Amino acid sequence: MVTSLDYGAFMEKFSLQLSPSQHQLPLSGLTFAVKDIFDIEGYVTGFGNPDWASTHSAAMSTAPAVMDLLTAGATCLGKTVMDEMAYCMYGVNKHYGTPTNPCAPDRVPGGSSSGSAVAVAAKLVDFSLGTDTGASVRVPASYCGILGFRPSLGAVSTVGVLPMSQSYDTVGWFARDPMILNRIGRVLLHLPDVDPIKPSQVIIAEDCFRLSTIPSDRTAQVLVKSIEKLFGAQCVKHAILGDYVKDKVPSLQHFMDKGNEDQVDDIPPSLAALSSAMRLLQRYEFKNYHAKWVTKVNPDFGPGISERIWDAIKATGENIDFCHSVRTELCAALTALLGDHGILALPTTPGEPPKVQANPATSDIFFSRPFSLLSVAGSSGFCQVSIPLGRYDNVPLAISLVAKHGSDAFLLNLVETLYDTLQETI
């Protein structure tokens, strides 16, 4: 059973490793935990809900992503708590409890990979696996003050991982150390070690930083000073991302009016529309996967989760083709903006983690601000890393770097190169 020393991170604990190798492996000596969305042979994949667990059998095989880590020498210490059916960003679970955020115990840990983030932040494991569909690695990494990596869409196998929305589902990971983050990436992405490459440009998304409640001298300016020190001032560029996206992603017009009812005044309309398109497609794909089970079982869901899931079950296919067009156009637009070795910088989240007892709003308007930032990488399929930047008002804060699809190795190397300078500049 979970104890207070676990910070409520684990669903169940065990020790799983392959036979010791005669030679040193890439992840030898490292421990990890796995979100309860991954199949592990002999264990029921619980999907954060006891009704799901009771109506499904134990997995017959282990997810390839987990097997890759075991084969590389790491030891799995258990499965972690998650938001029900991966359908929230706070990390609150009615049935299994809310894992305690080690960096800010009165704040939510972020979800849906809450337990995986907490296990790393509490130093219970060296790294952990989560999934990121809408935000589920990047948000808990930001809230818990650790590194979180969302890879390029399709870069890591999602076989043996319960689906949420196939157009966005990715396997991500958490670590405290950028070197370990990089080593995990080499294993999961099946990549050789390559030398770091200097970024051709680092574009500061000015309008995105204006959405943040954190002063820019604690986020954007920390990054700018670090980039200038390492690579020179000529590397730093500035852009109004919302204007660029509006000009280059014409299919967003189909979501502009529709998003007005959710829109917060200071969110660029194009980014609010991007968020609306992403959430629409996610709801539709979630329905296609899970409506039959939800309607048959009528599971017991927690507040907020229940409303979102039943809204998804009622979703129609209206505008779905335009959602796919938005994704194609956005990918092309951001590829043209960044080039092969460009970086886009933006806040991971627009503010501090909500307090545990605050019962964050369940309406879409509450999600508009964070998802206007998170949908940039989510909808384009680009890779993104959340990097901790210490504390502000005694809660963790973070910044994110985004690179084009397929540039995962480049981005992981850059984090390792940049990390110490960022921490010194804070």
UniProtKB/TrEMBL annotation:
InterPro entries: Amidase_CS (IPR020556), Amidase_dom (IPR023631), AS_sf (IPR036928). It comes from Gossypium laxum. Belongs to the amidase family. The lineage of its organism: Eukaryota, Viridiplantae, Streptophyta, Embryophyta, Tracheophyta. SUPFAM superfamilies: Amidase signature (AS) enzymes. One of its GO terms (molecular function) is hydrolase activity, acting on carbon-nitrogen (but not peptide) bonds, in linear amides. It holds the Pfam family Amidase. Residues 21-177 form the Amidase domain. This is Amidase domain-containing protein. PROSITE patterns: AMIDASES.
